[in-house]
Amino acid sequence: MSHRITIAGAGAVSSAGWGVESLWRAVEAGAPLPSEALPHPSGDPGLARSVRRVPRPDPRPAFLAHPRLRRASAISHFAAAAALEAVGPEHLATIRNGTLRTGIVCSLLNGSVNYSARFHAEVLKDPATASPMLFPETVFNAPASHVAALLGITAPITTVLGDTAQFFPAVEIAIQWLLDDVVDTCLVIGVEEADWLTAEALALLAPGAVLSEGAGALYLEKNGPGPLVAAVHGPCPVLSGRTAAAVRLFGDIIPSAEMLLITDRSGDSATDAPTAAAVGAWPGPQSHPRLVLGESLGAAAALQSVLAVKSLTSGSHSSVLAAATGGNMQAAALELHFPGH
Amino acid sequence: MAYRSGDSPPSVPHRVVVTGTGILTAHGCGWRVNADAAREGRVSLKPVTLFDVTQQRVGTAGQVDLPENLPPHRLPARILSRMDRGSHLLLHAAHEAISTAGWTEETLPVPLCLGTSAGAMSLGEAFHRRTLALPGNRGGQTTRALFYQTHTQSVLAARAFGITGPVTLLSNACASGANAIGHAFQLLRRGQAERALAGGYDALCRLVFAGFDSLKALSTTRPRPFDSGRDGLALGEGAGLMALETLEHATARGARILGEITGYGASTDLHHLTQPDPEGGAAFDSMTQACRMAGIGAGEIDYLNSHGTGTPLNDSAEGRAIQRWAGGKVGTIAVSSTKGGMGHLLGGAGAVEAVISLMALYENFLPPNVSVESADAVCTFPLVLKPESRQLNAVLTNSFGFGGSNATLVFRKNPAL
Description:
The complex is a heterodimer.
Chain A: E1 5-14, E2 17-18, H1 20-29, E3 36-38, E4 49-52, H2 74-96, E5 102-108, H3 113-125, H4 142-151, E6 157-161, H5 167-179, E7 185-192, H6 196-205, E8 211-212, E9 214-222, E10 228-237, H7 242-251, E11 259-262, H8 269-279, E12 286-287, H9 289-293, H10 300-313, E13 319-325, E14 330-337
Parallel strand pairs in A: 4-8, 5-6, 5-7, 11-12, 11-13
Antiparallel strand pairs in A: 1-2, 1-9, 3-4, 7-9, 10-14, 13-14
Helix pairs in contact in A: 2-4, 7-8
Chain B: E1 3-4, E2 16-25, E3 28-29, H1 31-40, E4 46-47, E5 60-61, H2 77-80, H3 85-101, E6 112-115, H4 121-133, H5 141-148, H6 150-160, E7 167-170, H7 176-189, E8 195-202, H8 206-214, E9 238-246, H9 247-252, E10 259-268, H10 281-294, E11 303-305, H11 312-326, E12 334-336, H12 339-342, H13 349-363, E13 365-366, E14 388-389, E15 394-401, E16 405-412
């Protein structure tokens, strides 16, 4: 039996704040958000890196008092907040009472870098006294596990690693779980947290971009009234260069003057060139949220996707393509349509 | 793997068989040495020499003696010199899986599905050490930043063997390798590909070693899963890969079939980030799901390769799950853990143990559970304590990880036999 896969909800945490509305307003305004200097562990001010952090939530959300989240790293807090917003209170009740089998596909690049660096620093100092509280939080699947515990999810969950385009193949995994009837609904989360080491790495690999952090989440269901997942394009593996992968990706996409293109432009000319070359003369409008929010790695394509949903549900557009060419793995895209488009 | 609205899975799923395997563990490199070690119950744990363990409670692990030379590959020397140990493990196992499957094409348009827990953590450690020791000195840091990214290992493995299909990298702690095989199995079942290369790997590194030691999870004596006096696990390293094909594809090309994957189950244990539900509820669920998909009852499983880490909590929870899942058949299902001989390979464990389970199925033997002096009372199932030859028709392997990720795979004998 054929099913339509639709978006039942979206959630976001970004350098613009906690929630989809703050994300939407910041990207609509179009001005790059302010950044802060993240100090080097040595304290040398000349080695500080510019980062667009997620602002502290005010007031502190009640869910952060959950036993699993009290000591968890920021990455798990972001994932949980985005997931809760995407699911919404009504769906949350049906997940928690076992009516729905809900899966989680969590996509990231770097993971829990703050706790990893802290734990490693302790190991370097004296491994015999390194904290057993920190180590479990360093595993890549800790955020997905915490979200599952918070929501009461016992269906399959998985964490998938990849470059900055990985969120789109993660959506496809969720779709296949839905079509295979492994789950009734599925959360797809893209999440990342910033630290000095990541900022330094990004400065080496993409010096024109500003590191950011956050999470985006889509809540997928079958045959719902929300935006339709018209297609997941790719992934086109980076085999003979990023531009070739991007060109292959866009070769399969039929552009239109009505379709909004949400790109992965981050401000680093070398990183941005492949998608720009492949897009060519796009006939419709374009949006470049990473220029506003910063480069949030595993969260970035998820935030593009959340903005795509918001563009449809706000009535701004009837079809949207969110696309990215990752650093060294793949080019991929998510195409959403308003129902009836 | 592009998806378009309206796509739907086939009404009758494709059958999926294994036509090649690759394995590298502390026992050695390749099918023969690992099958012999599993059959004999060999213990290959040794002192760790890769990093300083003098301040740890434990100094041994299933450290691999890397073969002197890499197998034939297509990576340039400048790439090789920058790759970490985990990538080397992966290349050895991938080459064996591809070559034993008889995949000889220059270009392999197949998906690559891998699982890992630590990835290239040793390069992350080096990046961090360097920035602390020499602030502002960028020598070699760009390379470390690029090669530390876990997906880079997978991308390079694909390039090494001309794999042009999509790459998927799963990281669900110690269930990663089993999840990767399960993911590839699902791709083939629903007809998204005719072939796939899948498995898992992990290399020893200081951060993870110290992490398990900090949790007091490492055995200070010797790992002995399911022994009443067990006191923890030994870490290991290695890689296990499987070449998977639809039965139609394998049959059409006359491939040797090592066995059929018939079931995959996955579930989530919410009890604790690192500790299993004492009653093994999620483990029961994943075994039940896998057997339901395979269309067989517990009584038809001849051998169960347990997750069996040797920690007090894991083995008792898994034992209870096995009791509940097997019901009245619990006395008929031979069970063992193979971690006592080679260590716990974390993200590679599920895949390596899937290969070992397939070896047992193909060569008709029960791998013994080493070092047991007095079996735990939870072992109401026959724990395999000595090498034994036995005709096997169906085997099941469990993998459970931090974060509550549980996975189970079921294999059956080559359908043509």
